[in-house]
Amino acid sequence: MLNGKTAIVTGAGRGIGKAIALKLANEGANVVINYRSSKEAAMDLVKEIESIGSKAIAVKADISKFEEAESLILKAKEVFGTIDILVNNAGITKDGLLMRMSEDDFGSVIDTNLKGVFNCIRHSVPLMMKQRSGKIINITSVVGLMGNAGQANYSAAKAGIIGLTKSTAKEIGSRGITVNAIAPGFIDTDMTSVLSDKVKDTIKNGIVLKKLGKPENIADAVYFLASSMGDYITGQVISVDGGMAF
Ligand code: NAP
């Protein structure tokens, strides 16, 4: 149970972030729902969480911007008093072959998916160090481990998250803070709904369990790490991918 704990989930209005926010709220946490553009969805999620008896607020912030990430963290601290769990989930794709990839498409994916994670960690860690406790969970991807044609920008960012996770874990473990990453495989969300059925079938064939994952599969792993079950785990990358990458 996470009663009395405060969790920030970035990009929580929809997809995997929404499932994570709901899971943590169901386990008793106060949840900060960060969104960038999905205001209505974030507000609806606040209501849904309140209806199950937990507390939630929605906070608009583009986490790729250092100052906006700071405002998000400070707002969470102001409203709930502590920051116990930070889930860096927000992410984008701008897929294309390297030969045709624009500088902007490379840069914006790095800015959101990698620098955004740094920004939120950077502003949370001083508060967690004072508390001498905290759980940081970064959502990377199997493509950060394997690479993927057409996703040089995205897989570079996701591989970067793994280095960031391990280095940060080594720096702040002595202060009672754990830092881990979860590497989802192919999860059924808006991000993957753009793919054709043919492409999805090809991907399914490469998955040992022969099916796509659900956002809830990722949320369960986040809960495991965020709860006391994850107390002795740090610096790890846990794949939740139906057996895609091993
Ligand atoms: P999604 O449905 O496309 O949702 C992306 C979320 O990120 C949205 O809530 C969006 O918020 C938020 N976001 C994007 N840029 C942001 C920014 N600059 N600041 C704040 N929030 C921002 O994606 P998803 O499938 O749920 O993916 C969630 C995470 O899992 C991502 O990190 C993704 O890379 C990772 N992942 C997904 C899969 C998969 O198969 N789906 C696999 C591996 C890893 P707004 O709607 O408010 O803009």
Integer-rounded radius of gyration: 17 Å
- Counting DSSP E segments of at least 2 residues, the number of strands comes to 7
Distance between the termini: 31 Å
Ions, cofactors and other ligands present here are: NADP nicotinamide-adenine-dinucleotide phosphate
Given the helix and strand composition, which structural class is it?
alpha/beta
Classify the fold: give the CATH topology. Rossmann fold
Q: What is the total domain count?
A: 1
Mean pLDDT: 97
Per CATH, the architecture is 3-Layer(aba) Sandwich
Please identify which CATH superfamily we are dealing with: NAD(P)-binding Rossmann-like Domain
Largest sheet descriptor? 7 strands, parallel
Residues in helices, as a percent range = 40-55%
Query: Which term fits the overall shape?
Result: globular
Percent in strands: 15-25%
- Uncertain regions: pLDDT < 50 for 5+ in a row? none
Along the chain, the helix and strand elements come as EHEHEHEHEHHEHHHE
Biggest sheet, spatial arrangement of strands: 3-2-1-4-5-6-7
Number of separate helices: 9
By CATH reckoning, the class would read Alpha Beta
